[in-house]
From TrEMBL:
Top-level taxon of origin: Bacteria
Phosphoprotein is among the record's keywords: no
Keywords (A to Z) from UniProt: Cell membrane, Membrane, Transmembrane, Transmembrane helix
Pfam family, one: Virul_fac_BrkB
Native organism: Metabacillus endolithicus
Subcellular location: Cell membrane
InterPro entries from the UniProt entry: Virul_fac_BrkB
Topology relative to the membrane: Multi-pass membrane protein
Main localization (coarse): membrane
Name under which the protein is recorded: YihY/virulence factor BrkB family protein
Transmembrane intervals: 29-51, 87-107, 127-146, 153-170, 176-193, 205-227, 239-266
Signal peptide: none
Length: 274
């Protein structure tokens, strides 16, 4: 049975006991390793898709802090200006390996949240991590395609079915909410599949909602803080952009892990009452 106390107090207690800050730092390291290979792969792939490089960068720019966005932009331009036909294959391999390491770190964090040991074999767990990575890449590409085609779809409906102009305005607003829906889908999949625990899909939804709202709020708040108050370049010099990026990835990792802790605590409370 659970000790008396609010849900929030128990969550704060687990924040310390399950070493969430340390696991978040580990996760941010793997995020950083996989970020640029993933973007190289994605932008190299754009030659085969009706998406401009600006669409990808503008999507990231919605949430990324200013100095980190400049770092991402400069690094990508430097890499992509060095023409190399092997960039796409390198991006695929590096993305799958680095991102699957990040998924494995998430798996360990979620197992700790549910107080279970990892009993799946190396090949099963690595295969699951790679499949989750591929699924997330696919979902992100769809998320990028929807805004590109959203306007054309809205115009088609507007012109062929005589829908009011107000609908087109609503459509243009709704298609930018896609990023939140995509985040929710990715988080739900992570919280359902990653832990070594037999769960129902609905068990992952509360944490996915909390993580989606939390990640967007924290990203926007941190971006505002960096843009208006903090000056990391004055403190860290030329690596200021890297520091900003690492802090953002650290906060992102913490939100993801806390979403898993949120789900685990709800799960334990629910089954303790049965």
């Amino acid at each position: 049975m659970f000790k008396e106390g609010s849900f929030l107090k128990e969550l704060v207690k687990r924040f310390t006991s399950d070493e969430v800050p340390g696991l978040s730092a580990q996760l941010s390291y793997f995020f950083l390793l996989s970020l640029f290979p993933f973007l190289i792969f994605l932008i190299t792939l754009l030659g085969y898709l009706p998406i401009a490089q600006e669409d990808v960068l503008n999507t990231i720019k919605q949430f990324a802090p200013g100095e980190s966005m400049q770092l991402i932009n400069d690094t990508l331009n430097q890499i992509l200006n060095d023409k190399n036909g092997k960039l796409l294959s390198f991006g695929i391999i590096a993305t799958l390996w680095s991102a699957s390491n990040g998924i494995n770190a998430i798996v360990r964090a979620f197992n700790k949240a549910y107080d279970v040991e990892e009993s799946r074999s190396f090949f099963v767990s690595r295969g699951m991590a790679i499949l989750l990575t591929i699924a997330m890449v696919f979902v992100i590409i769809v998320a990028l395609l929807l805004p590109v085609f959203g306007k054309e779809i809205g115009l088609f409906i507007f012109s062929h079915f005589g829908v009011s102009a107000q609908f087109l305005t609503i459509w243009n607003t709704m298609r930018w909410l896609v990023s939140g829906v995509i985040l929710f889908i990715v988080f739900t999949a992570l919280y359902f599949v990653a832990p070594n625990k037999r769960l129902h899909l609905k068990d992952g939804i509360p944490g996915a909602i909390a993580a989606t709202i939390g990640w967007i709020a924290v990203s926007l708040a941190f971006s505002y803080y960096v843009g208006n108050f903090a000056n990391y370049s004055a403190t860290y010099g030329s690596i200021g952009g890297i520091i900003v990026l690492m802090v953002w990835l650290y906060l992102s990792g913490m939100i993801i892990i806390l979403g898993g802790e949120f789900n685990a605590l709800l799960y334990k409370r629910k089954h303790a009452l049965k």
